[in-house]
């Protein structure tokens, strides 16, 4: 089941995406509240809309975003960084979240080195604390696509830590939908891609993760309680601009498309604010 948050005639609601049609659901509150209520497969309410007639929003507004750095060996290598012995955890603020079609924006007075990172995002389905790897996948509601947009000058060359460089407004596009857990046969066998203006720059697979999804959930839950609607960004494969020679960063007007197999793709245009 592909769950979306969409707007039609100034009304925002939760729906099910099926091909080029969005079906209204009996649950019309937010996706996060639906997850918190324990509803995993709400029924359709009889409404249907052409996808072209609605605006897809971010599929959910997470309580917190826990992200993992350098979780693919080739990505660590391209940035001349060691592969971590334990998951490298950082956070992104919920205010970074935007949906497909929204603009990624930044000010030139703050950053001039904005990079892309396609990632599989795990949506937590129930309160999760100190779970085993064997229990971990039972705590998942579903999966979505994330772009962990990163200001590399702030992250790597100014601050010495990652919060600001990862958490500027608009720096976490999510979407286009959340696919429920039962419809993803194996989260460790999904292709991931990023293209800039149609040029493919990342082309990887979740099978290459250093720390797998079940391990990440178990490891994180030993430190932090995860709540329904929280998300985990599981890392990015190689092909980021920071790892290119010469380095390549996003420019005004460029379109970034990120996709994960069996979930979907989302596109965001970049807009640079000169000040």
Describe this structure in words.
The strands form three sheets. Strands 1, 2, 3, 4, 5, 6, 7, 8, 11, 12, 14 and 17 form a twelve-stranded mixed β-sheet that branches. Strands 9-19-18-15-16 form a five-stranded mixed β-sheet, with no helix packed on it. It starts with a strand and ends with a strand. The chain is mainly beta. It is built from six helices and 19 strands. It folds into two domains: 55 residues, SH3 type barrels (Roll), CATH 2.30.30; 209 residues, Fumarylacetoacetase-like, C-terminal domain (Fumarylacetoacetate hydrolase, domain 2), CATH 3.90.850.10. A hairpin with a 2-residue loop joins strand 2 and strand 3.
Rough shape? globular
CATH class of the largest domain: Alpha Beta
Query: Taking all residues together, what is the mean pLDDT?
Result: 97
Q: How many H/I helical runs?
A: 6
Estimate percent helicity. 10-25%
Q: So what's the oligomer here?
A: single chain
Summarize the structure.
By secondary structure, this protein is mainly beta. It is 14% helix and 38% strand.
Could you give the topology of this structure?
Elements: E1 2-8, E2 11-18, E3 21-25, H1 31-36, E4 44-50, E5 55-56, E6 65-69, H2 73-78, E7 88-92, E8 97-98, E9 104-107, E10 114-115, E11 118-124, H3 133-136, E12 140-147, E13 150-151, H4 152-158, H5 163-166, E14 172-180, E15 191-196, E16 199-205, H6 213-223, E17 231-233, E18 255-260, E19 264-273
Parallel strand pairs: 6-17, 8-14, 9-19
Antiparallel strand pairs: 1-2, 1-5, 1-14, 2-3, 3-4, 6-7, 10-13, 11-12, 11-17, 12-14, 15-16, 15-18, 18-19
